[in-house]
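A reminder before we start the practical. When you read a complex entry, don't treat the lines as separate problems. The point of joint prediction is that each chain is placed relative to the others, so the output describes one connected object in space. Small molecules and nucleic acid strands, if listed, are placed in the same frame. In the example below there are two entries. Take a minute to note the order of the lines before looking further.
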Amino acid sequence: MVFWIATIIFIASYGLIVSEKLDKTKVALIGAGLMMILKIVSQHEAFYNEKYAIDYNVIFLLIGMMIIVNILSKTGLFQFLAIKSAKLAKGKPFLILIFFTCITALLSAILDNVTTVLLLVPVSLFIADELELDPFPFLISEVMASNIGGTATLIGDPPNIMIASKVQLTFMDFIYHTAPAVLFIFGFFLLTIKLLFGRKLHVKEEVRQKILAIDEFTMIKNYSLLKKSLGVLGMVILGFIFHGVLHYEPATIALLGAAVLLIISKEDPHHVLKELEWPTLFFFIGLFIIVGGVIKVGLISNLSESMISLTKPSADDMFITAITTLWFSAISSAIVDNIPFVASMIPLVIDTAHAVLPSGTDFKAVVQHSTLMPVWWSLALGACLGGNGSPVGASANVITLGLAEKAGYPISFRKFIIYAIPITIETIIIATIYIWLRYYFLH
Amino acid sequence: MKVRDIMDSSPDIIRTSDTFEHLIKILDEVKHHVVFVVDKEEKLAGIVTEGDIIKVLVPKYVTVDESLISIMDVNYFERKCKECKNLPINEIMSKTTFSVREEDPIIKAAALMVVNKIHTIPVVKDSKIVGIVSRLTLIKHITKVLAET
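Here is the predicted structure of the whole assembly.
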């Protein structure tokens, strides 16, 4: 009976999130509330149990990075970089497009994707307007670059943060494993942009001169704050690089960095904290409790049995499981928000690992078993890259399309997917080749 | 007293198919700083204010990132004016949300202006505009009322 009640809450919550009939944060919180009030998971389990509780490492890492990015975004750095690169490109539209795409990918790898597009999209609209060009090539390239770039690092995209926290992976693990894949994928993505838009982007010399006349330094609003923010961000990234060696969780480093920046920047914490994405944070909290409930009643174990019978993983080879996970994650993440998907996939893969791999008392040894690792990288690549597949696949897509509409350049669902679906399929094919080559063929 | 007793029965009107250039040309003769827009069937379709005219020349992305205002091209305004020359009125106008009827009491027009912070209200009969009440019309009426006492 408890099993079915938990399953119904889980399916109803995910159904409502997908349908977008009700705000996803409200759905996650009511689902979590029901799980606790019906005693499927007790409050103690939801808050403190190692297996079923909220993953505070994810929550506090997000909070820490949100604070740092919030303060950094007030300096005008993003706009400065965009204008500077446009001038370096000598106002040539295609070169500007390539530079903007690279900046978006790079910033998305170290900061959150939503902030990156939120700050770069208006500058792109401005540049396209000044060059008297259709802004669409800039917008579609940037939003996709943001999701591709975010895949590269532990802190780039929430699915990576969630996987890293549960599987105890380090920042450098992602640099060694997902970042090379992203480099390949991004290279092909740039070639695709060239094929799609290379011939369309041409302007007259006098129009280009308008870009060269802009003083990019007027974009920097506060030099002192910029130095402090970049200093702290640099230290935090250094902390992430060494957190595995120093045995600190990434959340500890992000929180300390945020606290230091709040103090030295003299920003009012009330203002900064008010601007954090609290709905996203509470969405995570609610989801963790809902997923905790279905883990406890055994639904995830049942699903993992189905996964085992379908993909037949063994202790020596999980190739089919890895590739199935990659494509299934990509398709699911294009249709639904990748956060709830990954939240339920992580325990499912852990259950599969416990069922298939030699069981021991050491949790880390099981979840980081060399046979299982390609499955984790497939989940990360599929969930992050799949977000590009539709306008609702990732938060960055929703934000960009919203900004484009607000600015008077609406992009229809149809126009978005005409470009997005083939590019997403291309990136997933490259990811498949990468997984096969690196972990099976060359292994 | 009713709205019909004080309304201006010759409001300035433009058609949805007219252009930005035509609108600017007729602005000189406009009495109430607004022009009402009617469709092919002469039904009220919208309103164009001075604010709407300026708004169409300013890119909307500056509302998202105000810092971009400082680096805009010096000739941007002139370029936009020329680009908008043939822009149809239905892309400039705002929808009219409020209207009164001839038989409505004057206080209804006054109250709608205060509550919704608007300066002019169209007077409508069978969806067609038959007049206009502005704050100026109301002031003139106040003067008349006080003179009577």
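Discuss with your neighbour: The mean pLDDT of chain A is 90. What might explain this?
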